[in-house]
Amino acid sequence: MNKLIITCAITGAEVTKNDNPFVPYTIDEMAEQAFQAYSAGASIIHVHARFDDGTPTQDQDRYQKIIEKIRSRCPDVIIQPSTGGAIGMKREERLQPTELDIEMATLDCGTLNFGGDSIFVNTENDIIHFAKIMKDRNIFPELECFEKGHIDQVLRLHRKGLIHAPLHFSFVLGVNGGMTGEERDFIFLKESIPKDATFSVAGIGKYEFPLALLSIKHGGHVRVGLEDNLYLEKGKLAEGNGVLVQKVAHMAASFGREIASPNEARMILGIGGKRK
């Protein structure tokens, strides 16, 4: 079985310090949380940029400063900016990080209700446009799917030559408005992708660790982090991202799965050359 790739989503666009004081906003806080996650075993750091007051932004200059600071602490880590941004952002605003020197980014593969009146809009033309930009800029897309229809969309576009192999899916389960994170949901999505594709699972809230365990057992990969879940266990806030990664690493050890380094993760996913 392949080594386990752990992605850490260190901040997101929605959670705040009122939810958990360890949620990073500033550039230095982002770098520190990335370093703690990396030190615990994360080979991919998923980044949403925020200004110092916590406001989410896709500002290219802000991303550049965050990326430089993280690389100064974790030289070989894979930095994976979000192209989802925050609810209400327009296409070109969301794409700003793809203009930087990055090797990987998320590509959201369908529209989703996000609770209340919030709608996370990703039209078919949005997806095609984002995929083309990433291909042209040699950026490896992580295909974020919140439900089965999003996988079907990816596979249709793949058959048309608009999304290219190797395919790496991220099942994001437990979002209000998307699929829940029960074992049946995980199995349904896992069995819906091509046999030669890779996948990772991001469980939201209470689903984070049960889904991590399932993915470890079934040969998949895992995403954790304060974007997705604020608690180390029921009633106990996580004191940063590192402890969430560490918990997954301990789970993997109990199943005999080693943790992939960043360069091993590049090889597993087919991203390309090593970063020194």
Order of helices and strands: EHEHEHEEEHEHEHEHEEEHH
Strand order of the largest sheet: 3-2-1-10-9-8-7-4
Number of strands: 12
- Please give the alpha-carbon distance between the first and last residues: 26 Å
Helical coverage, percent range = 25-40%
Query: Which consecutive residue ranges, at least 5 long each, have pLDDT under 50?
Result: none
Explain what this protein looks like in three dimensions.
- The protein is an alpha/beta fold.
- The protein has a single domain (6-269), classed as Aldolase class I (TIM Barrel, Alpha-Beta Barrel), CATH 3.20.20.
- It contains nine helices and twelve strands.
- The chain has helices at residues 27-40, 60-73, 91-94, 124-136, 148-159, 183-190, 208-217, 242-254, 262-269, and strands spanning 6-9, 44-47, 78-81, 104-108, 112-113, 119-120, 140-145, 168-173, 198-203, 221-224, 231-233, 236-237.
- The strands form three sheets. An eight-stranded parallel β-sheet has the order 3-2-1-10-9-8-7-4, sandwiched between helices. It has a two-stranded antiparallel sheet with strand order 5-6.
- Strand 5 (112-113) and strand 6 form a beta hairpin.
Show the helix and strand layout:
Layout: E1 6-9, H1 27-40, E2 44-47, H2 60-73, E3 78-81, H3 91-94, E4 104-108, E5 112-113, E6 119-120, H4 124-136, E7 140-145, H5 148-159, E8 168-173, H6 183-190, E9 198-203, H7 208-217, E10 221-224, E11 231-233, E12 236-237, H8 242-254, H9 262-269
Parallel strand pairs: 1-2, 1-10, 2-3, 4-7, 7-8, 8-9, 9-10
Antiparallel strand pairs: 5-6, 11-12
Helix pairs in contact: 1-2, 1-8
